[in-house]
Design brief:
Elements lengths: L1 H16 L16 E3 L8 H16 L2 E7 L7 H11 L6 E7 L4 E6 L7 H17 L3 H14 L7 H5 L4 E3 L4 E3 L29 H33 L5 H25 L6 H23 L2 H8 L5 H32 L2 H4 L5 H24 L7 H54 L5 H18 L6 H19 L5 H32 L6 H16 L5 H27 L12 H10 L40 E6 L1
Helix pairs in contact: 1-3, 1-20, 2-5, 4-5, 7-8, 7-9, 8-9, 8-18, 11-13, 11-14, 13-14, 13-20, 14-15, 14-16, 14-17, 15-16, 16-17, 17-18, 17-19, 18-19
Pfam families: TPM_phosphatase
Organism: Pseudonocardia aurantiaca
Protein name: TPM domain-containing protein
Amino acid sequence: MRRLSTLVSVVAVLLLSGAGAALADPPSRLAERVTDRAGVLAPGQAEQITSAVTALRVQGRIDLFVVYVASFDGADAQAWANRSAELSQLGSEDVLLAVAVQDRAYAVSAADGLPLPESTLHAVRTRDVEPRLAENDWAGAAIALADGLRTGGGGGVPVGLLVIGGVALVGGGAYAFTRWRRTRTPAPAGKAPTGGATNDEFKDVSTNDLAYRASAALIEVDDAVRTSEQELSAARMHFGDEAVAEFAAALAQSRADMLRAFELRQQLDDDQPEDETGKRSLHAEILRIASTADDRLDKQVESFDALRSLEARAPEYVIGLAHRLAAVRARVPQVDAAWMALLSRYSVGALEPVAGDLDQARNLLTAASIEVDEARTALVGAGPGSGPAAAVVSGRAAEDAITQAETLLDGVGRRESELTEATARVPAARAEVLQDLAEARAMGSLRPVAARAEAAVDAAAAATRGPLPDPVAALRLLDEAGAALDAGLADARAALDRANRAAAALDHTLLIARSAVSAASDFISTRRGAVGRGARTRLAEAQRHLQLASGPDPVAALHEAQQADTLAQEALRLAKADVSQWPSATGPSGNGLAADLGSLILGGILSGASEGYRSGRRRSSRGYGGSRRSPGSFGGSSSRGRRGGGGRF
């Protein structure tokens, strides 16, 4: 597993430096305790900081590194600081303060093992460091941080005394974690913000920082929900529905909460801008909803882990994974043959939603094989990095990779069924549109609508002609033409007749919408390591509209299904744009272990170098090695990376 951690770090370097323009001040190894690349320290101030750092090291048993740069050049401050800490090989008792003077941004990076409560680190940062940075007191901020760490934020109380009782040992020492939790009074998840003043909980947070926290919360908790879904599915296979009913209920409620949060995010993204108060109210509500959903999952973690008890039956677990891996691998040739057949029958556009899925599945299976081998080695090995706990860490990474590979392989077969069904539905859809078109032609006021519908019918016919048709595109064109005609004829038709026509159109519209939502969901779930807020928001909204399309009113349901299709297409487009920025997106697939691990990170199975939306100490990797890059499990987002915090000043 040491080799795994090293290679994940290599991939993290690619994440930070492989795409886009080079950083003006890239993360790098810090040779000195004080590094002033921005030239902001006056003569003698570096020595003053060094003296404070020396006192901290002697009295507080903590080492501090400080770096000033001109700009993080668009990079996330926390990610920049964490990467510099990794390159500098900072340990569990080391802290890094990174300041970008032109960006007016900073971050404090501290390892999970820092012998200081998170609340103290937060207090020192917000009370002593940030105000001095706001006044351009660069040296004073670093000295204040050193003094605060040395005294534990309490004016001279030794740090060691503050640590006693500060670590909770769960399950006989399997987990060691603390977590800072804000005092909050969350509003009911189903109620929209009233547009009044922002809750006092965030009164000292700028609107930009509040927006950043809300966006980060959406991604973090959405990832937690998706990972929990996969873990719950595996547990259900092992133990049955009754044994996991409580976890399923918690997950369903958290999933519903996140759909509500994404609905609010969509409200912020629409073309009706909110005023400053409205924006703050929406961002605050998103944070409250996400926190509630996150906490609900976290409360189930201990019981869920006890249920699975993977460590106690690690040998059987690893053997089962090996059998499952072999079974999924045996499917690849069959799916490959089906894919080649699809390429010979349908256009590139018709297959675009699942293009690349087979290659990604192969990469994931290769990575899963490596993790299974690591798990076997850990079971028979001795010393650090061996034993049942280490085997479970590798085994769970393999399990998630296999699950994602199964999803991708299933998607190819599902696409074939969708295209076959769409082909069968095109004639009936065309007949319905032509019927409406004949009626529209007879009405002089609807001639422009009729002309556009005629063009759509011609385009749909072109999409189904030739040796490589695109029946889904044809069905979509006919559906759009039918919708336009229905809108134009609405005043001329009786309400019952309009409802009947909508009901007739709803079947194939739902097929289109489900197809688009499934393709976007699979793409985002299996590449979530690179997909950002925009795509996730559109997908969540598409899923919400698709749910509403099952309502009793066929006219409203048809509209919701069309909205779901539009949003799902946009989600897939945005997600592909995000993944196209992935450092290895255009490189060869399956070449080497680093690429395979890159697939694990791309799939969100192994966490990258990013920080969470909450400052807080993260859960360790189930007691094994203290690795910060273990695969996710059922629960909330509190399990990744270095802790610390920062923001604007």
